[in-house]
Amino acid sequence: MKDTLLVPFSFAIDTVNGTLAPERPPVQRRLDDMKTAYAQETSGDDLVYEVRQIDVPTTNSNLLSSTTTLYPGKTNGEYYMTKGHFHQKRDRAEVYIGLSGEGRLLMSSESGEVVVEEMRAGSVNYVPGGWAHRSVNVGEEPLVFYAVYIADAGQDYLAIEHQGGFPVIIVEGENGPEAVPNPRFQQA
Ligand code: PAN
Ligand code: ZN
Fold it and tell me: If you measure from the C-alpha of residue 84 to the centroid of ligand 1, how many angstroms do you get, rounded to a whole number?
């Protein structure tokens, strides 16, 4: 439609730190913003992750995209991670493209199925509609990835809070990062 025709545009991503040119102000999440996201309650002003979004209208199946820079660290043995969410419109899928660092992508369905995939430079993860998703930095460097989805998807964080997080958490095991049952998880 003529009245909604956008002008094409381009950005450059710094794949090591996730910044954009032209710059976009980051949304920042600190431990204090996610006190109840981890299996054990946590707090502090440590910066856990930043999201830089390339805004587009949420109409007409526009594609919203963003970079996430997830810093390395642990709290009570759990690696730093994003809050995680279902999409408000449950059928909306998403593609994650790994740019740097080393991570895990936790995905879980409303019936409690779990899939854990690896993230690194060059990885492409497809998150189908209906799967909640949370990324976890299991390395020593920032985990940076690019995400693309239909702009009207929305993020439902409450559903994750209500079920006590994801069915599994990622902790450091004897042979590296491992997924173990989340003691706080309750099937919705
Ligand atoms: C991502 C996430 C981003 C931050 O762009 O929004 O990695 O994670 P939380 O939104 O869970 O805090 C995405 O999945 N968007 O839909
Ligand atoms: Zn999402």
Answer: 7
